[in-house]
Amino acid sequence: MATKGDRDEGQSGNAAAPAMVLASLFLDLWQANLKAFALDQQRDKDAAGDPAVKEGGK
Amino acid sequence: MTTGLEFAALMARASRGPRPMPLHLANAFGLWAGATPAAGALAAGALMIHPSLEDGFASLRAMVEKSGGWPAFVGAVAMESSTRTAQFLEGVNRYLTHPYNRPESEATIAAEVGTMQVLDYGGDGTPVLMIPSLINPHYVLDLMPGRSMAAYLKERGFRPFLVNWNEPGDEEVAFDTGTYVMARLMPALGAVAAVAGGPVPVIGYCMGGTLAMGLAARAGGMLSKLALLAAPWDFEVSRAHAGRRMAPALAAMVQGMPPRAPVSVDYLQVFFASLDPTLGDNKFRKFAAMDQNSDAARFFVALETWANSGAALARPVAEECLGTWYEGNAPGRGNWMVADRPVDPAEVTAPVFVAAPKADRLVPQESALAVAKRLPNVVTHDPGAGHVGMIVGSKAKAGLWAPLADWLKES
Fold it and tell me: Is ipTM > 0.90 here?
């Protein structure tokens, strides 16, 4: 039979678990966010900032 | 958790890579050190979010607001980002201390010119000359058992001869790409043609393919067929070459080096690391979680060690690649000089096989295919894998090695 202490610990664990899950999800998104901006920066430069690309006319 | 003392020992073993180590550490530390403030910024609605990820962050915000609230979330992010930093360090540590070392090749040295060697894989098959890039070691074409294009070609009835560039010596430090073609590849081809008693096929990978194109244009009757594997040719295609953004900065760095000093692989690794600053963390955290005694772990160590090694580039070659090729598109514009004449692919009448993967993140498919438009006798092929995966990945045999061997065997 579960005691009140077990229930409290379980509730505390349940409250903490989602925060860690959400944190993990956030960190995946944060990493993807930095990667997306890094790739964009390269594309922006390729498309707009590189005279060789413009002059190539391709 | 890696301690400070262990970390110091780890740094002492850092020559295996990832190189340059300080850059990879800074990228990973910066990534995770920035996460907690970013979580706070998300709570305040002040985080700069990439348009492709807006929905994901919006869902996350809603979930946080329904759960324990922002303070608990930000605290959890701080804990989890520390864990990820430790996992990254653990991955690097496990990589540096992994017992796998690539077994020495069974090939013998068939010819030496300057510091370049031509390695002979033996057998009585049809000789074929294989030319790797000047960047990273030659052995990507013979990485490890089961991941060796050279071994596969030998099984299929060929006798591979593989160019090992080695470090540039007193002569090579002054070479440009055209000199490498005429003073190193031409004698290598001559040596292999002498073994064959006639013209031989040549396979060039990446920059080695571009050099092979120059060789083919000057080789006359010594070359029977030419295979270009992800070889860059046109540097002005719509999807730019990887790292092009870095080329002017790197060119300036190279110009600041002492005269005749070769360009270390660390300079080039900065170039590759700039493509995706989050990649190192991803790779090494995954490696930390792998069974270290698995084939996958040994493959990781073999490939990562290859990617982090390589001879220095002769200064004129580095300047030419960054300037004349990347910025000036000399090959694609028909201005690349070999033996005092521009290289024109139209002069190559031998059959040519152009492998150009759509999934190549380093050399755009369009760049590698551009040469095919000027070749009179050409077939093109998409190996269905990335730039390195097509050579050593799980799909390499079906996607590239077998179609290439079949083509080489066609009369």
Answer: no
